[in-house]
Design a protein that fits this description.
The complex is a heterodimer of chains A (95) and B (186).
Chain A: E1 2-5, E2 9-12, E3 17-21, H1 35-44, E4 52-58, E5 66-72, E6 78-83, H2 84-90
Antiparallel strand pairs in A: 1-2, 3-4, 4-5, 5-6
Chain B: E1 17-20, E2 23-28, E3 31-38, H1 43-54, E4 64-65, E5 70-75, E6 78-84, H2 91-99, E7 103-107, E8 112-118, H3 122-129, E9 142-147, E10 150-158, E11 161-167, H4 171-185
Antiparallel strand pairs in B: 1-2, 2-8, 3-6, 3-7, 4-5, 5-6, 8-11, 9-10, 10-11
Helix pairs in contact in B: 1-2, 3-4
The chains are: A alpha+beta (95), B alpha+beta (186).
Chain lengths: 95, 186
C-alpha cells in the first residue's frame, strides 16, 4: 500500500504506524459539565464503518509527521491525505 | 590522570572501511550534529536565522544545503545541522547563538553515526537497504527512512555517493545491514 504524503509524495506504508480513528484529535474539554461522559465516548466508543474512514497515521520511518488519511476500509483505496496539524488548525485549534 | 582513547561508533581506533565490488562503505566519525526545531509562530524567523549558520537558504522539504555547516530537512520546520567536528565541536552552541529564541536546539553529535557509501553500483545496494526511490534522488536530496528497522537519514551527495545517518547505539546492526546488502547486491 502506498500513502501519498502531502509533503514527501508517495511513500511505502511500511514506513508508517497506524494509530486509529482521526476523532482522537478532538480531545474533550475536561472542565465541561459532561466531561466524564465525553471522555468515556472519546476513549472507548468507535464507529466501525465499512467504507470511508478517517484515521491517524504516523510517519515513523520518515519525517515523523502525523497524517489524517481518508481510507475506504472495504477497498483500501486512499482518497485523501492531510497533515494532522493542518486539520487541527483548520478547526481553529493550536495556530 | 586518565589516559582515555577515543574509539569510533563500531569500537575501532580507526574508522572501518569495507569494499565489496565497486562500492565502498566508510565509517565517518568526524561529524558534529545539532537538531534545530522551530518554535510555534517563529517558523519563518527560524528559517531565516538558520541562513546565518549555514550561509544558504534554509533547505525545503527533503533537501540539504550549506558548507562547511550544512543543514538537512528532517520534518516540517525542523532541520539537523552538520559540520566537521574538528572545526565545529561546539556546533549546538553556534546554532543556538544564531537562532536564539526562534528555535530549540539540541546537541546530536554522538546520537548518530554516519556511513558514506560510494561507488558506481551504490544504487543497487541502497535498493536493498531502504524503500526510498533512491534512483530519483539528486544532489542535495535528504530523506528519512527505515533501514533494517532503524530510522536513518539518507543524503545524496552525488549519483554515486550517499551518506547514511543511523542511531549510534545501533551502529553495529546498521553496519551489518549495509555490508550484507553490499555482498548480496554486488
Amino acid at each position: 500500500m502506498i500513502i501519498q504524503h502531502p509533503l514527501l509524495g508517495p511513500r511505502d506504508s511500511s514506513e508508517f504506524v497506524y494509530l486509529g480513528d482521526a476523532s482522537l484529535i478532538d480531545r474533550p474539554d475536561w472542565q465541561a459539565e459532561n466531561a466524564a461522559e465525553a471522555f468515556y465516548d472519546y476513549a472507548y466508543l468507535r464507529a466501525n464503518p465499512a467504507g470511508e474512514h478517517r484515521e491517524l497515521w504516523f510517519h515513523e520511518g520518515g519525517d515523523r509527521s502525523w497524517l489524517v488519511v481518508t481510507r475506504n476500509t472495504v477497498t483500501h483505496e486512499i482518497s485523501k491525505v492531510e497533515l494532522a496539524r493542518d486539520v487541527a488548525r483548520a478547526q481553529g485549534r493550536s495556530k | 590522570m586518565h589516559d582515555l582513547v577515543a574509539i569510533t561508533a563500531l569500537g575501532g581506533s580507526e574508522p572501518r572501511i569495507d569494499t565489496v565490488g565497486t562500492v565502498t562503505c566508510s565509517e565517518v566519525p568526524g561529524v558534529a550534529l545539532a537538531s534545530v526545531a522551530a518554535r510555534l509562530d517563529q517558523e519563518k524567523k527560524a528559517a531565516k536565522a538558520l541562513t546565518k549558520l549555514t550561509g544558504s537558504p534554509a533547505p525545503g522539504v527533503g533537501r540539504f544545503d550549506g558548507a562547511p555547516v550544512a543543514a538537512f530537512w528532517t520534518g516540517p520546520d525542523q532541520w539537523i545541522a552538520e559540520a566537521p567536528f574538528e572545526s565545529h565541536e561546539d556546533l549546538a552552541e553556534q546554532a543556538k547563538a544564531a537562532l536564539g529564541d526562534t528555535a530549540s536546539v539540541s546537541e546530536q553529535t554522538d546520537a548518530w553515526t554516519r556511513f558514506d557509501l560510494g561507488g558506481a553500483q551504490v544504487l543497487a545496494v541502497l535498493e536493498l537497504l531502504c524503500p526510498l526511490d533512491t534512483r530519483k534522488m539528486t544532489y542535495g536530496d535528504a530523506a528519512r527512512t527505515s533501514i533494517h528497522h532503524l530510522g536513518c537519514f539518507v543524503l545524496c551527495r552525488s549519483p554515486e555517493a550517499y551518506s547514511l545517518y543511523g542511531p549510534r547505539s545501533s551502529a553495529g546492526s546498521l553496519h551489518h545491514a549495509i555490508v550484507t546488502a553490499m555482498r548480496s547486491a554486488l
